[in-house]
Amino acid sequence: MLAELVDELAPTGTDRAVCLLVNDVSWQAYEALLMKLADQTSLRVAYLDGVLEVVSPSRRHEGVKKRIATLLEIFFEVAEIEYFPLGSATLRNQGQRGGREPDESYCLGLEKAIPDLAIEVILTSGGLERLAVYARLGVAEVWFWQLGEFSIFCLENEGYRQRDRSQLLSQLDLDVLKSHIDAPSSLTAVKAFREQVKAMLMNSYPKNNC
Predict the structure, then answer these.
(1) DSSP structure string for 167-185
(2) Predicted pLDDT at 9
(3) Is 66 inside a domain boundary?
(4) pLDDT over 70 at 3, yes or no
(5) What is the span of the domain harbouring residue 181?
(6) Banded pLDDT at 210 (limits 50, 70, 90)
(7) Is position 199 within any domain?
(8) Is the dihedral of CA 185, 190, 195, 201 positive or negative?
(9) Burial of 41 (0-12, 13-18, 19+ CB in 10 A)
(10) Which one of 30, 36, 170, 186 has the minimum C-beta count within 10 Å?
(11) pLDDT at position 206, please?
């Protein structure tokens, strides 16, 4: 029955996201669905305390998340930060009864089972509480892109705390990054951002007054 409901979320290629929420789903049913959808990369699946969420993202959503990833990886390259892109790989912990597939995710420095950074593009409201799932998974930092702004949440002992800047990428000026996300030309955005990152990093180095 669950698989039949999910089959109705087949991607349409339109700019309309579709979300399915199902209650009282066992962990075993969740994992069985993940296996069934192993080759269906267009759907995002999340689980929290027996509630299952399956989302078919819109065309615009996918374009925005790809633009963010492209720009961020330029920053990693120019700043010479070793990174391991995990994309929307499934993150789950049975003991914590939580699982989620971020829009983009990265390990920094070393490859790990759980990424250091998860990124989500939010164009619609509703659905599972995202930070609750990520807290159970132990993701150090979560970025939300919503209404043209980034919201940065860093995991601390008592849970996530919102910050003005990334703690993982302290040299990154988020205002510069966000200025290119909705630019009409991808090529122009990429070229301009690369030059701005070079200037950004140069200005962050301590000046030698000798």
Answers:
(1) SSSTT--HHHHHTTTT-S-
(2) 63
(3) yes
(4) no
(5) 59-204
(6) very low
(7) yes
(8) positive
(9) exposed
(10) 170
(11) 55
Q: Tell me the two tokens of residue 142.
A: 């979560």
pLDDT at 126 over 80: no
User: What does residue 206 show for φ and ψ, rounded to 5 degrees?
Assistant: -65, 135
Residue type, 29: A
pLDDT score, position 207: 53
Count CA atoms closer than 13 A to 141's CA, side-chain side: 17
Q: Let me know if residue 149 belongs to a domain.
A: yes
CA dihedral sign of residues 183, 168, 122, 44: positive
Q: What's the confidence (pLDDT) of residue 127? A: 75
Q: Cα torsion for 26, 28, 34, 38, to the nearest 10°? A: -160
Number of domain units in the chain? 1
pLDDT at 42: 81
